[in-house]
Amino acid sequence: METAGSSHSDYHNFVVNSPVRFRDVGVYGTLPGTANCIDPARSRVPLYLVHQAAYDWTVRWLGGEEPPPMPSPISVTDFSTNPVTLARDSFGIAEGGIRLADVTLPIALNTGWNTGGKPPTSDSTCQQTGTYIPFGQATLKALCRNHGSYVSKVAGATNANVRDGFILEEDGETIKDEAAESSVGH
């Protein structure tokens, strides 16, 4: 399930896996920000929530219920490039795919790709971490006029994702609670 703005090794992956990686091999992995990578690393799109819903659907499907929903794929404009060239919206976020609130009402540029690594970090290590660049206040104001507007738009996008089966209802409630507690739009 392609999820716009997500990456193979996102921020959640870093937070969950870094302590174990450090314990076992003595390194934390690619750090968020620009310490290791050319672009600020570690997309914040919560891909793991889509995975949780996919696991839930798989269990139900194997139990004889209907198969999981299939979203539209990420829109590709050129397959001959490496990586392929994606269609992007006005904020630089990939079009198509599952569109969580983080890309429906973005507060940052989240992508699935990073330009590359700063030596000694390899390009491929950074490329899979994606990019995360917070928007400035002017862009945030243009996207939502106040906190209530932001919370309402996040709730709408999240409710649609729950209805479409791309995230679980309890995860949707967490997303909406976090939006209500955020400082966006204040």
**SSE run:** HHEEHEHEHHH
Report the strand count.
Answer: 4
Category from helices, strands and their pairing = mainly alpha
Strand content range: 5-15%
- Mean of the pLDDT scores? 94
What's the helical proportion of residues? Answer: 40-55%
Number of DSSP helical runs: 7
- Going across the biggest sheet, name each strand in turn: 1-2
Major beta sheet summary: 2 strands, antiparallel
Round the Cα radius of gyration to an integer and report it. 17 Å
Termini separation comes to 34 Å
**Can you tell me the overall shape?**
globular
Taking pLDDT < 50 over at least 5 consecutive residues as the criterion, the unreliable ranges are none
Question: Could you characterize what this model shows?
Answer:
There is one protein chain. This protein is mainly alpha-helical and 186 residues long. It has helices spanning 11-25, 47-62, 101-104, 123-127, 137-143, 147-163, 169-181, and strands at 76-78, 85-86, 108-111, 131-134. It has a domain at 11-134. Strands 1-2 form a two-stranded antiparallel sheet. Strands 3-4 form a two-stranded antiparallel sheet. The longest helix is centred in the C-terminal third of the chain and has 17 residues, at 147-163. It is globular and about 45 Å long.
Briefly say what this structure is:
The chain has 186 residues and is mainly alpha-helical. Helices cover 41% and strands 7% of the residues.
What descriptive keywords fit this protein?
186 residues, 41% helix, two-stranded antiparallel sheet, two-stranded antiparallel ribbon, 4 strands, 7% strand, mainly alpha
